[in-house]
Amino acid sequence: MGPTSLATSGSTAEPTTATAADGSGDAETTAAGSTTGSTTGSTTGAIEPECIDASDCMLFTTCCDCEGIPVGGMGVDSCPNVDCKGTWCSVQGVEEVECSHGRCETVDVSCNPSHVLCDSAPPQCEFPFVPGTARGCWSGACVSPELCDWVPSCDACPDDEVCVTAPPGPAGPSNNSCEPIPPGCDAVATCACAGEQLCAGLGECSDGGENWISCLG
Questions:
Q1: What are the two backbone dihedrals, phi and then psi, of residue 88, each rounded to the nearest 5 degrees?
Q2: pLDDT tens-digit readout, 145-178
Q3: End-to-end Cα distance, the chain
């Protein structure tokens, strides 16, 4: 979702930028309508792993987009005619990428309310956005759920990600998070194809529903 409060439609957009995971800042200009650089897998429609570690990934960001893509890949600018004061990654506080379950992803922004020690109230965020946290208080940002390390419920997760419910921490609620669907799951994550990866070290996996698994068993 784009930063509508910061963007003005109708003007010319800046060239789309992609930053390498090593921080080199190498930029690439991409055209609207191009496709991301993932590799199509078998005839079942599964997607092959696009990365082994973070060095295989880079940050792709525009006025409305913030995602990790393979190095050398091209991202799609979803709002090429929008001008903005800052890219969506900078607005959301995203700075790094990682290789998560074979897919390039952004490193999650802190959104867990158990990290908040200050007395101030969180910002009022429109669903499904989640208040971000930083340095023991609210950051003031409303963060897109797929960029968060915690969401209040699985309803916040987008359709192309799996919600993982993990055991609560010592001072916080159950940890729901939106995670990339592992390549071998053919767009629908279940314990059979994703449990070993997503519940590693957390608990026994159980299927909670379509693209929702629980590690509370």
A1: -65, -35
A2: 999 999 999 999 999 999 999 887 655 556 899 9
A3: 34
How many residues appear in the chain?
217
DSSP code at position 85:
S
Residue 167: how many other CB atoms lie within 10 Å: 11
| Separation CA 90–CA 59 (nearest Å) | 11
Answer for the pair 10, 81: CB distance below 8 angstroms, yes or no: yes
Which residues 6+ apart lie within 8 Å of 41 measured at CB?
47, 48, 183
Query: Which is nearest to 200 in space by CA: 166, 171, 168, 174?
Result: 166
Please tell me the distance from the alpha carbon of residue 15 to that of residue 30, in angstroms, as a whole number: 7
Residue 28 has a CB neighbour count (10 Å cut-off) of: 17
Structural domain spans, the chain: 7-106, 113-214
